[in-house]
Design goal:
Glutamine Phosphoribosylpyrophosphate, subunit 1, domain 1; Rossmann fold; seven-stranded antiparallel beta sheet; six-stranded antiparallel beta sheet
Length: 495
């Protein structure tokens, strides 16, 4: 039996990277994808554009299942296969399409009447099913089960003779969450949905331009951050831009849409060293921890020091904010490393039978017993989805003989699935749904002495610098900013 150690947290369905005008485009894309590994660990791929001896553009691709270092494990790939000064890359978690199909690994490539076209997509298209059926009825043949392929067909079937205009019309047809990088024979194009669900940023490395999901991909290359791709914007990089330094920008539509950034990007998905939605992720996570402490503190028992620990690594910054604020409230507390996380487990691990159900969490975590024994312990985590790992983790900590365990969650209860680019289970698999959001009942099930979540209002207060009304919180509230087709919901969670 294979135990998947990534599924107890929400998973974001991808990271994208594109570069134009670099002699080492494929290698720099490799490094960029490595920095974005947290956004997708199932598969990855890179496409490059080079010029043949006859002067014709050539698109070359290498992709496969596994981590970036596993798929691109031979330097010859970059020297002899992925050559050229333009490249796009993709890390994948599947939210639509079979996770195991090699055909569903992006980037996707097509050759049509205006030349070559490649695309890498982060997000989910909520009307993909409807458009796909329409295209099939008109004779289109799909090679994958991914919603991203719909975008290629819309562009390829367009009768206009300008690729940017073709892309623009395709963007006007699709709905939902999309942050895209596309590569043509002579351009790097990026597009972001009008609501801005997922991040997308622009940077510069010497004379080359980069467009990617997060700024941490700039840092590994020592590239300069320029700005974010605006919601509803199409950005074009070509030779003219390289020469002039003036980025070409177009609007998908003249109509404005409310910004609805995914709040989980701040809570969990994005790396803390990234800058997205106009703010530093690290700063927002600390604020989440501080708001959590102010509204849901844990006080001393018998004047003993309270020990605050995180579930590493995603909650480290939040726990720091929690402890700092708790101390301001007059609580004698200390931030400690109470859990050690193994970084060498890969994506899956062989679990030999069901006799020891705790083996999964013990593979990933171990306690520092001297820190926890006899102490009042506050365990700070960013979210709980199914609760299976949380329950095992609490038992692991309980075995270290603490005085008490208090679980504090820097998000609200997850009660609904996401349809905008996160891989959430169906309602029936969510612990909060199964206990009707009865927090005390959840805590009893997990085996803690107390448990508290941020409310939706507290959560929005923590990120208010980026605008309280600018966030999507559908997975907590059930209020979906874009209508989701019933058949699409059914397909997503029965596939």
């Amino acid at each position: 039996m294979q135990l998947n150690l990534q599924r107890e947290k929400p998973t974001c369905n991808c990271g994208v990277f594109g570069i134009y005008g670099s002699h080492n485009a494929s290698l720099e894309t490799y490094y960029g994808l490595h920095a974005l590994q947290h956004r997708g660990q199932e598969a990855c791929g890179i496409v490059t554009k080079s010029i043949s001896k006859k002067g014709n553009p050539i698109f070359s691709i290498h992709k496969g299942e596994g981590l970036v270092t596993e798929v691109f494990d031979d330097h010859e790939i970059f020297q002899n296969k992925l050559i050229g000064e333009v490249a796009i890359g993709h890390n994948r978690y599947s939210t639509t399409g079979s996770a195991q199909s090699i055909k569903n690994i992006q980037p996707f490539i097509v050759n049509y009447r205006l030349g070559n076209l490649a695309v890498a997509h982060n997000g989910n298209l909520t009307n993909a099913r409807e458009i796909r059926q329409e295209l099939v009825n008109e004779g289109s043949i799909f090679q994958t089960t991914s919603d991203t392929e719909v975008i290629l067909h819309l562009i390829a079937r367009n009768k206009l003779n300008d690729q940017v205009e073709q892309i623009k019309e395709a963007m006007q047809r699709i709905e939902g969450a999309f942050s895209l990088v596309l590569m043509t024979d002579n351009k790097l194009v990026a597009a972001r949905d009008p609501n801005g669900f997922r991040p997308l940023v622009i940077g510069k490395l010497h004379d080359a331009y980069i467009i990617t999901s997060e700024t941490c991909a700039f840092d590994i290359l020592s590239a300069e951050f320029i700005r974010e791709v605006e919601p509803g914007e199409i950005v074009v990089i070509d030779d003219e831009v390289i020469q002039s330094g003036l980025i070409k920008s177009y609007k998908i539509s003249e109509l404005s849409s409310p910004q609805k950034h995914c709040i989980f990007e701040y809570i969990y998905f994005s790396r803390p060293d990234s800058f997205i939605f106009g703010h530093n992720v690290d700063k927002m996570r600390r604020r989440l921890g501080k708001v959590l402490a102010r509204n849901h503190p844990v006080y001393n028992e018998d004047e003993e020091k309270v020990i605050v620990i995180s579930v590493p690594d995603s909650s480290n910054t939040t726990a720091l904010g929690y402890q700092t604020e708790l101390e301001k409230l007059g609580v004698n507390c200390k931030l400690e490393i109470g859990l050690i996380r193994s970084h060498y487990i890969g994506r899956t691990f062989i679990q030999p039978g069901q006799a020891n159900r705790e083996i999964g969490v013990k593979i990933k975590f171990n306690t520092v017993k001297g820190v926890l024994e006899g102490r009042t312990v506050v365990l700070v985590d960013d979210s709980i989805v199914r609760g299976t790992t949380s329950k095992q983790l609490v038992k692991l900590i309980r075995d270290a003989n603490p005085k008490s365990i208090h679980l504090r969650i820097s998000s609200s209860t997850i009660t609904h699935p996401c349809f905008y680019g996160m891989d959430f289970p169906s309602k029936e698999e969510l612990i909060a749904h199964n206990f009707n959001s009865d927090i005390k009942a959840i805590g009893k099930n997990l085996g803690v002495d107390s448990i508290e979540y941020l409310t939706i209002e507290e959560m929005l207060e923590a990120v208010s610098e980026a605008g309280k009304d600018n966030f999507c919180h559908a997975c907590f509230s059930g209020k979906y900013p874009i209508e989701v087709d019933h058949h699409y919901k059914k397909e997503m969670y029965e596939t």
